[in-house]
């Protein structure tokens, strides 16, 4: 576990008071608006900002404990830090930038130079100077530099925020590989829902210096009470599914999850692969009887778990399915007209779904949404990826079943 | 072209300016770094003391040097007694005077250069396993080289032009402390010294221009190496 329990008052009036823990594997997103304190949290973990009091520990390593008087200096914490602005050393070549942390590492060298260079595709840049690199290239080198310092935890502070859409698209696949190939926990700061959905397994939602919700991605992002705090984005339900069939004729794929199946626009992934499906609450309508003559194909039955007033004329209805749950945004008028109340059996009709292809579902901590037959790494489209596991120094891939 | 006496003055000036710059550089880097990066109680007073030679009349600086480092000075008597070092009337003393006077200028140039370095890059070095000192030598110091260079140039120029503190502290001894400014001063007191004063003035202009051009070239090279152009 990564435990973070700290208090910090800045003389600007900003106050950070957080107490949460994150799993020691996979990606945990620190998600919230700018100025909410996300970056301060990882600065405190890295040791560049000292909390007034509290405790920070990763596994058995205590980084900070005000009661025991422990405050490990930055260089001894063994965390890799990827900054929003790459912060490469301008007076060194790319290769020397990469070697800087490697040479100073106090931990066993399990992450190898060649493997990192291969994984990030920066082999052709080694002799260049940072000022000759594009923003995306700089960020890749910065990631490599952090990895080669052999960290036990990787901190990433909006590594994509300073890049344009094209560059973001260029880096994201590398981040996904990082997550899937290295057994390295990552704390990932972001204010972008898209990135969080694509990369993370767990989420800590941050607002006004506090962690207001923390847990599996699907649970946290579907909490309607977070909406006003986190800013406008489309709340919804996130389901980790498995691709079970393709229908070329109609251009549809079938994905399944413990509560049933969904027909979605053709997914560019093989049968058996994992796919993360997002259903916006406003795309889910409710019916009291089994809908027959409607165009909507995706229907799921369940019972109303709760009804919460949402913004404007809407209410958020949480529908409990056999295993998971689903959120629907309906008008309060409809709630009254249909006399909806908790415990009632309803049919949820799903008008649209978004599929975020996601190579691995095995490390999702949202257990109730875990794919029925978890997909091992073998099924990932290895495409052009060179030797995956050599990076982790021969550690066998973790299988869940 | 120049008389042997004038050559001596030129050689002495270069020698004094060079060594004054070299000796004052390491402490100037240290003080500049401390002033740019650290906050501590009494920082204002420390800063004030460092800048004192800049704001005091140079003659006062020279006199202060005389009463501290002179042969009967507070420290000077021990230097003399224990180590046999006597600074007055000597080139070493002229170097000390030049170094003390130019020190705050060097510190300021370096402090400014350090202030311009993003501290985040030092933080990056720290997270990669570098101790504070390691980060200073491998990241901060190389990045502040342009500032060090301009500090050296300012120090050189100010040492070449040093007059008041030198003449008060170590007097005007030919071949020992008579640098170009002192030689010009002496020349203007001689009935036929005009030609000598003029020749030394021309030498001063050439030295000044030469060092500016050299510094410009060095600056380009350093910035190229740092990837700043």
Key attributes of the depicted protein:
heterodimer; A: 401 residues; Rossmann fold; 2 domains; six-stranded mixed beta sheet; five-stranded antiparallel beta sheet; globular; disordered C terminus; B: mainly alpha; 0% strand
Would you write up a description of this structure?
The complex is a heterodimer of chains A (401) and B (229). With 401 residues, chain A is α+β, with helices and mostly antiparallel strands. Helix content of chain A is 20%, strand content 33%. Chain A is built from nine helices and 21 strands. In chain A, the strands form four sheets. Chain A has a six-stranded mixed sheet, with helices on both faces. The two termini of chain A are 22 Å apart. The model of chain A is unreliable at 359-401 (pLDDT under 50). Chain B contains eleven helices and no strands. Chain B has 229 residues and is mainly alpha-helical. At the A-B interface, strand 7 and helix 2 of A face helix 6 and helix 7 of B.
Characterize this entry briefly.
By secondary structure, chain A is of the alpha+beta class. Chain A is 20% helix and 33% strand. In chain A, the strands form four sheets. Chain A has a six-stranded mixed β-sheet, with helices on both faces. In chain A, strands 2-1-4-5-6 form a five-stranded antiparallel β-sheet, with helices on one face.
Specify the CATH homologous superfamily of the largest domain in chain A: P-loop containing nucleotide triphosphate hydrolases
* Series of secondary-structure elements of chain B, N-terminal to C-terminal: HHHHHHHHHHH
Low-confidence stretches of chain B: none
Low-confidence stretches of chain A: 359-401
**Outline of chain A:** globular
Number of E-type strands of chain A: 21
Oligomeric state of the chains in view: heterodimer
According to DSSP, the number of beta strands of chain B is 0
In the CATH scheme, what's the topology name of the largest domain in chain A?
Rossmann fold
Class by alpha and beta content of chain A = alpha+beta
Calculate Rg of chain B over CA atoms.
20 Å
Number of helices of chain B: 11
Number of domains of chain A: 2
The pair of chains with the biggest contact is: A-B, 29 and 21 residues
Radius of gyration of chain A: 22 Å
N- and C-termini, Cα separation of chain B? 42 Å
Biggest sheet of chain A, in brief? 6 strands, mixed
Rounded mean pLDDT of chain A is 80
- Which CATH-level-2 architecture of the largest domain in chain A? 3-Layer(aba) Sandwich
């Amino acid at each position: 576990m990564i435990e973070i329990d700290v208090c910090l008052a800045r003389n600007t009036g900003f106050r950070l008071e957080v107490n949460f823990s994150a799993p020691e594997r996979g990606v945990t997103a620190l998600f919230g608006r700018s100025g909410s304190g996300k970056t301060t949290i990882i600065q405190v973990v890295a040791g560049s900002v000292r909390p007034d009091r509290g405790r920070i520990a990763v596994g058995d390593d205590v980084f900070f404990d005000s009661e025991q008087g422990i405050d490990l200096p930055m260089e001894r914490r063994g965390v890799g830090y990827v900054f929003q602005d790459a912060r490469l050393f301008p007076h060194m070549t790319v290769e020397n930038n990469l070697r800087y942390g490697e040479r100073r590492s106090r931990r066993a060298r399990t992450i190898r130079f060649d493997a990192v260079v291969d994984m990030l595709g920066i082999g052709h840049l080694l002799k260049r100077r940072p000022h000759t690199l594009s923003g995306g290239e700089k960020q890749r080198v910065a990631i490599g530099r952090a990895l080669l310092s052999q960290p036990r935890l990787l901190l990433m502070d909006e590594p994509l925020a300073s890049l344009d859409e094209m560059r973001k698209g260029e880096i994201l696949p590398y981040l996904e590989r990082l997550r899937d190939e290295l057994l390295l926990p990552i704390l990932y700061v972001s204010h972008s829902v898209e990135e969080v959905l694509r990369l993370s397994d767990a989420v800590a939602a941050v607002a006004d210096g506090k962690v207001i919700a923390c847990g599996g991605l699907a649970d946290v992002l579907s909490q309607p009470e977070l909406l006003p705090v986190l800013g406008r984005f489309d709340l919804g339900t996130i389901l980790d599914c498995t691709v079970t069939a393709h229908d070329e004729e109609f251009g549809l794929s079938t994905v399944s999850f413990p509560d049933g199946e969904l027909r979605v626009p053709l997914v560019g992934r093989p049968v058996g692969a994992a796919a993360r499906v997002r259903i916006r609450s406003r795309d889910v309508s409710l019916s009291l009887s089994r809908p027959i003559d409607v165009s909507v194909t995706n229907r799921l039955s369940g019972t109303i778990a709760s009804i919460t007033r949402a913004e404007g004329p809407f209410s958020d209805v949480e529908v409990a399915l056999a295993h998971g749950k689903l959120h629907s945004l309906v008008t309060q008028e409809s709630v009254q007209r249909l006399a909806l109340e908790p415990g009632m059996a309803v049919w949820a009709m799903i008008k649209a779904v978004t599929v975020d292809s996601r190579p691995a579902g095995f490390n999702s901590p949202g257990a109730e949404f875990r794919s029925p037959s978890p997909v091992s790494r073998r099924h990932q489209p290895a495409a052009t990826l060179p030797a995956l596991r050599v990076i982790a120094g021969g550690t066998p891939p973790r299988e869940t079943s | 072209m120049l008389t042997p006496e004038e050559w001596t003055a030129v050689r002495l000036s270069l020698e004094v300016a060079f060594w004054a710059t070299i000796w004052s550089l390491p402490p100037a880097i240290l003080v500049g770094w401390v002033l740019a990066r650290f906050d501590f109680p009494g920082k204002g007073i420390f800063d004030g003391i460092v800048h004192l030679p800049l704001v005091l009349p140079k003659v006062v600086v020279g006199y202060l040097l005389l009463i501290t480092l002179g042969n009967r000075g507070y420290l000077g008597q021990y230097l003399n007694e224990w180590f046999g070092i006597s600074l007055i009337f000597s080139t070493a003393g002229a170097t000390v005077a030049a170094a003390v006077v130019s020190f705050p200028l060097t510190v300021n140039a370096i402090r400014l250069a350090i202030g311009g370095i993003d501290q985040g890059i030092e933080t990056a070095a720290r997270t990669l396993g570098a101790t504070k000192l390691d980060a200073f030598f491998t990241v901060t110091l190389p990045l502040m080289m342009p500032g060090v260079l301009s500090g050296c140039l300012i120090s050189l120029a100010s040492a070449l032009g040093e007059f008041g503190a030198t003449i008060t502290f170590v007097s005007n001894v030919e071949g020992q402390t008579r640098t170009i400014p002192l030689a010009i001063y002496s020349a203007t007191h001689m009935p036929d010294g005009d030609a000598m004063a003029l020749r030394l003035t021309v030498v001063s202009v050439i030295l000044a221009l030469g060092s500016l051009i050299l510094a410009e070239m060095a600056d380009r090279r350093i910035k190229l190496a740092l990837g700043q152009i």
